[in-house]
Specification:
- With about 120 residues, the protein is an alpha/beta fold.
- Helix content is about 30%, strand content about 20%.
- Helix 1 runs parallel beside helix 2.
- The longest helix is centred in the N-terminal third of the chain and has 14 residues, at about 20-30.
Length: about 120
């Protein structure tokens, strides 16, 4: 039986390896046939930047997020977190902007919540 898992990322991928590790863990959970949603809060939204050169684990992040995109894992971006750059999310990852209250509702629905 699959469970819903929410992965909440607030770490800044420009300064921390934890943001990439959180994405990698989300990918591993999906491989276990669980339903996964990823929330990008604040600076974590930079995980979807087109130019990964400024990200700590840029090349690795690009590979993991591509795998998550192909698996159609939704990315929820908290309101006000989306960067203003026109090429943000150039890969077309399914993204939905949500209010903080919606994140709380998603967490309540989840069997597990992982926060980074």
């Amino acid at each position: 039986m699959s469970e819903r898992v929410l992965v909440l990322i607030s770490e800044d991928p420009r300064t921390s390896h934890r943001a990439h590790e959180a994405l990698r863990i989300a990918l591993g959970i999906v491989a276990g046939e669980n339903e996964v949603a990823v929330v990008l809060d604040g600076p974590a939204a930079h995980l979807l930047d087109a130019d990964t050169d400024d990200l700590v684990d840029g090349d690795d992040i690009a590979k993991v997020r591509d795998a998550l995109r192909r698996l159609e894992v939704p990315m929820l971006v908290t309101a006000g977190s989306r960067p203003a750059e026109a090429d943000w999310n150039a890969d077309g990852h399914p993204v939905r902007e949500v209010a903080v209250a919606a994140v709380a509702a998603e967490a309540a629905r989840a069997a597990r919540v992982l926060a980074f």
